[in-house]
Design goal:
The protein has 895 residues and is α+β, with helices and mostly antiparallel strands. It is built from 42 helices and 16 strands. Helix 6 links the parallel strand 2 and strand 3. The two termini are 35 Å apart. Residues 1-345 are annotated as: Uridylyltransferase.
Amino acid sequence: MHFAKSKLFNRATFKHSIRDAETLPIAPFKAAIKKALAVLEEQQVQGASSADLVGHFTWMIDQLLILIWNHQKQSLDDRVHLELVAVGGYGRGELHPRSDVDLLVLLKKDQYDEAKEFVESFLRFLWDIGLDIGHSVRSIRDCVKEARSDVTVMTNLLEARHLAGDKALFELLDTKIRAPRMWAPDKFFIAKTQEQEQRHAQYQDTAYSLEPNLKESPGGLRDLQTILWIYNRRYGVRSFRDMAEQKLIDRDEYRILIRARNILWRMRSGLHLITQRHEDRLLFDTQRTLADDFGYLDTSTHLAVEQLMKRYYRTAKQVMYLNEVLLASYRVTHSKRISLAVGRNLNDNFLLKNKMIEQRSSKVFKRQPSAMLELFNLMQEHKITVIHPDTIRSIRANLDLINNQFRSDPDAHKRFLALFKHEGDGLTNALARMNAYGLLGAYLPSFGAIVGQMQHDLFHVYTVDGHTLKVIENLTRLRKYPDEFPMASELLADLYKPERLFLGALFHDIAKGRGGDHSELGESDAYEFCIQHGLSEYDARLVGWLVLKHLMMSHFSQRRDISDPDVIKEFADIVGDIEHLDNLYLLTLADIRGTSPKVWNAWKGQLLLELYNATRKALRQGVAKPHNVREHVEDDKRAALELITQQLGEKSVNEELIQTFWNTLPGDYFVRNEPYYIAWHASSLLLSSAIDIPLVTTRYSERLEANMFFVFAPETNKLLTQVTGAFDRMELNIIEARLQLSSNGFALYTFNATVPESDTARSSDYARFIEARLRKLIIEHSGEKFVARSHSSRALKHFPIEPRITFLFTSKSYTTMEVVAQDQPGLLHNVARVLQTHNLILLSARVATFGERAEDIFYIRHGDHSPVVDKNLLQQLESELSEALDKRTSAQKQA
């Protein structure tokens, strides 16, 4: 929708209103700007063209500045020659509602003193009427000098435009800065591409940030501007229309560029109007309001804000594609080294030239559409990572050939599957490029539906397509970097038909956003795809099973007691055989690591590995074989004694005393603890005396990347709250807790925790300090108070997490309590406080965090070893825990 400039500002009427003023009045100018911003806000909501919003506002500010300049210039000595020039975004004609108005006062000569009073008066007036001014005052000579040494100054001057004053000065400056030796085009290209690479690195080289910067993030406005700057320097173009008229881009590229620019412009203008300040970050605070401005409504499957962000991510993806193609095209066109290189034919369709693959004829894809897939097969085979920009353009131009007939073509099936069967690490690059060029979504429409789809929470930091490709990248990294996860790399190397695993990764989230269970819907898609592409019934079912069960292994490892043989048997029954286990383990490892950098940690990796090893052992023994607990316990005791002897020496080991201590412990102590821990606990007690009780000792685990703590003390009703309270006061973040009681009244607590001073966590001096400090706090701390709630982060204000308490009855000896709440200091302590008031025993706890959300598992029972099943008591626990852990504000609770 377009609107007239006159709605924003009537120059003639305004000029008439101030005609009799000897000195310019401030009030009318301020009122005009205020009215213009109100009109812009109204037009933004009504869906006005972003080109009109930005262009008309730029024009209006032009008119005001010209009026002010011409009025005040009357007092300037005629011998002083100067000009008012718009630079930066304002120079490009892209002034958003709260953007800085960047100005250059250009002097013919070094007449700084003569112009000083006039310039100060002019700028003061602009500030008084409420404009945010960025300014510089330079002579032509100084401009040239600054531009020669600073590419940013050079860039600003390239896009400058005349506003008022002596236009001849600007024309002279423009001639000088466009001289061949002034940042020659090739040198300028290198500087601007390096600048872009550095900027992208600041944003982790991804457009898929939860709170992207519309201007600076990859795929943002700055990427569009970089294209124009580089082409401006060589060809003198100032707009994408100029580029199209000079045949530097085709009509389709021009259309995409303008559409992407207009969407980003509208979002940026909307942000400025909503926040009433210069704000380019698409923050959670403004995403919902902006979604309303765009007219999006919540649906049964997608929130309005998710629809807005999907539009943004798809736009950013298009910008990144065009930025890549147009800069690559520029480099190829103007590089003598590339133009003189001799090509080598790869086959009848493609050649390799200067490390780039390109089509031998512009009609290759028209003649043989499946060659679009063949291109990526050749890239894998010859380890090629770069495609000639003209070939990329040809792919885009022929995407309409990927229709139902193409998708049913056996040759296309063969070539697509070949990508997944290749044993190198080129699959990641191939799929990423196919996604960027629209080829992957065209071949798999169900994948195209998830492109740019974001889940509006703090757990998923990638779009669904971005996450999927990240998972596949994590799998290929196992081939490229075997030292990261040695065992997983060995499993992948020995895996039979690894293409099934990679296909499972491709499809594992493909049904997100449709409503219903995405695992079940995805299983159906995966099975149908595999059958259509000629996989056997068994292979198709295995791929479908991976999609269906892709969340199961992380659930068992993090939310179930995997030291319980019955849990291992249950999981082994579901998995069925080692082949399914190997595939599921590798997919789960890659999936968790591909969700968010904050989600993965060494402890979760260790839990996953423990579940894998225990299940593999159970499957090899036969899942129906009964578990011999007594034999297990005796094996662990023998192994622990050997470790104690190695650590302390044979003369220092009192085996009779150790056996007496072990006889006081329940059998599940040995089942739940490895020999290493059993030996550590016993040796710590051997080296201590009664005066050391409560005993606190710690060791750093490289495997877990966390500190392990052992606490031994007489059991009391308040002990657990005293211990957890001490941990919280030391700011130790507990990630796992195991608690056992001896028959003679002592408690053995084992904690895994991360410490604030992670750099010093390995230090023995730090370990001794933290042991002494914890012991002192345990003795002094009553444990009677709940830990105070900390201030919520800004992001959490938009993603309040309501505590959810669930009870499961899967064991005859304990009740499983699942707690989902906002991650917070003192969570375990506050849970322990509630359990203490009801005289309940906490056997063990698993503390897992996913972004800002804690998902913790507690195993609880009565003092008589019976599970907690009384409905009234369970309701009380749910109510009291919800109150203790709820960090939402009153308004959020009401909402």
